Amino acid sequence: MSIVKEIMDSLKDSHIHRMGVCGIGGVGKTTLVKEVYKQASEDKELFDNVVILLDVKSNPDPEAIQKKIVEKLGMELLQTETIEGRASRLCAKIQGKKILIILDDVQEKIELEDMGVPRLPTCKILLTCRTREVLSLDMQANKVFQLDLLGKEETWSLFKRMAGDVVEQNGRVRDVAIQIAQKCGGLPLLVVTVASALKEKKKLQAWKDALRRLKSFDKEESTKKAYLALEWSYDQLDDKELKPIFLLCGMIVMQNDICLQDMLKYGMGLGLFKNISTVEEAQDSMDTFIEKLKDSCLLLDGETEGWVRMHDLVCDVAKWIARRDQYILSVEYRGELKEWPGKDFFKKCTKIFLPSSNIPTLPEIPLECPKLELFNLNGEDDSVVIPSNFFNGMQKLKVLDLTKMCMPSLPLSLQYLKALQTLCLDLCTLGDITLVGQLSSLEILSLLKSEVEELPREIGQLTRLRMLDLSECSQLEVISPTVISSLVRLEDLRMRNSFNKWEVEGENSNASLSELKQLSQLSALEIHIPDADILPANLFSDKLERFNIFIGDAWEARYSWEKPMAAVTLNTLKLKLTNNKIMGLDEGLKSLLKRSEDLSLEQLQQLPYNFCIIEKQKSKL
């Protein structure tokens, strides 16, 4: 009987409330519980709700876990609510219902009852952990399943499946392949990654070289051996552009998840996508690299569109290689940096990742970082203050990401970053951002989910800007006239749940929609136009390849922008026009109607029949 079948049977046992799965890293615990999650979710008679939280160890904070459970059960998160208050609501939600909660990669005791998860026969808990003691003693699991290493036959079967036909077509290769498979030590993660790295290799010499390398790891302890084997898989990446993409994935990963839009913004800023001339081409190039890394089993599919995942062992190896080869300063998510490295390190340092505010005070004397290309700092609260001259020693900086910062004014030294390609000021509280206009080389500017009230006229000086992300800037009330029309190279404009105070043409106090017509290279647009009467004729060009456009006042309350354009594969149009606009439907709107793949129409009974010929196989009405 498979362990999945045993777990499913145990979930039906009224005497078993808590279960655990233990095993070493890379043995397949996450894969197993994801299959349990899938089967349990499909069995509507077994549970009313099934919740899974992956990679709990990366953020074991009880309140964070509690909030995720609350959200996944479809409950509202109240901002001013205490842990205790939320626990009462959660407990009430769970009582009387059949619930399964899966917590993956638990490393220490979690007081579930304090979070509002009661011990009830109808509330089942499934945990994974590397050690049996945490499950049995700390979490008091009624039953613990041991996930062992693969046996020889299982190892060979998995290896053969991942490596492909070559191991069966050539007898000499097959003999070497069997030995290589056994050198993976029965660890599914290694079997899959090593086999995937060899699946395109036709020559016997490549297989023999792989066996020789793996044999050289025999004397190492198991964790080091796994690291070295994964490093070997990294070494097999043929494409020179693929390796820096993989290492960047390892640095920007958050709780095993990687946001592909962050990858795009960082990758373009660092020049990692070669021989591209547009943002669309960079997106295509990135997608190709991501698929190659998935094929090599170094990346996994994400839980949602626009995201990918990285196994924690693979992530550790990526960071190990990056720190060793690229002189990178990085802190684990919610980790701590106790003191700054010495001057000699910063002279060699190429990238700094500080995804937590748990760091020493930023030095008043500027860090001398002549080779630094990327600086990432997550403030998380108001405690991090950036000195005015902080960036003086970072003249080669290409990517700057300051997230969750409170900056009434920007550091003066920001204006001297003349090599800067990408600036991300996401989830920030911002005042005057006039200084950004001095960054003459800037190609990507992101203010995603930031509190900012005005986009000043100086932003119009960024004539090399190719992407502007104003998504979720709900407080943005003013965009100075001519700013948008001055961004003559803009290809990608994102304004989801953002500015919509479009000025009527001829007035001069705010941006007007007609400015968009000056953007001859615009190929991606996300926008809401609440007043259809101010829509200029032929606003939308045939050059729009990706769009997410809401027109009319019907959509604010009834439709949420659940997914950003970057995560949506369908071109979306939601349309409510006045009678005047219906009868005078221009060529731009006709083109959008024909090319829309997710289409919503409101009060358009008078729409002429010949305007409604839409390819049914593409559209959702």
List keywords for this structure.
alpha/beta, twelve-stranded parallel β-sheet, 621 residues, Arc Repressor Mutant, subunit A, 4 domains, 21 helices, Rossmann fold
Concise summary:
The protein has 621 residues and is an alpha/beta fold. 33% of the residues lie in helices and 15% in strands. The chain has 4 domains: 3-146, P-loop containing nucleotide triphosphate hydrolases (Rossmann fold, 3-Layer(aba) Sandwich); 152-235; 242-317, Arc Repressor Mutant, subunit A (Orthogonal Bundle); 440-621, Leucine-rich repeat, LRR (right-handed beta-alpha superhelix).
What would your notes on this structure say?
By secondary structure, the chain is an alpha/beta fold. The chain has 4 domains: 3-146, P-loop containing nucleotide triphosphate hydrolases (Rossmann fold); 152-235; 242-317, Arc Repressor Mutant, subunit A, CATH 1.10.10; 440-621, Alpha-Beta Horseshoe (Leucine-rich repeat, LRR (right-handed beta-alpha superhelix)), CATH 3.80.10. 33% of the residues lie in helices and 15% in strands. The protein is built from 21 helices and 24 strands. The strands form 5 sheets. It has a 12-stranded parallel sheet with strand order 9-10-11-12-14-16-18-20-21-22-23-24. Strands 2-3-4-1-5 form a 5-stranded parallel sheet, with helices on both faces. Mean pLDDT is 88; it is low at 557-563 and 613-621. It comes from Rosa chinensis. Residues 4-164 form the NB-ARC domain. Residues 375-578 form the Disease resistance R13L4/SHOC-2-like LRR domain.
Mean pLDDT: 88
Helix proportion range: 25-40%
Biggest sheet descriptor: 12 strands, parallel
Radius of gyration based on Cα positions: 27 Å
Give the overall silhouette: globular
Query: What's the CATH topology label of the largest domain?
Result: Leucine-rich repeat, LRR (right-handed beta-alpha superhelix)
By helix and strand content, what is the structural category?
Answer: alpha/beta
Query: In total, how many domains does the architecture comprise?
Result: 4
> Which percent range describes the beta-strand content?
15-25%
Alpha carbon gap, first and last residue: 47 Å
Helix tally equals 21
> For the record, what CATH class of the largest domain applies?
Alpha Beta
* Secondary structure tally: strands: 24
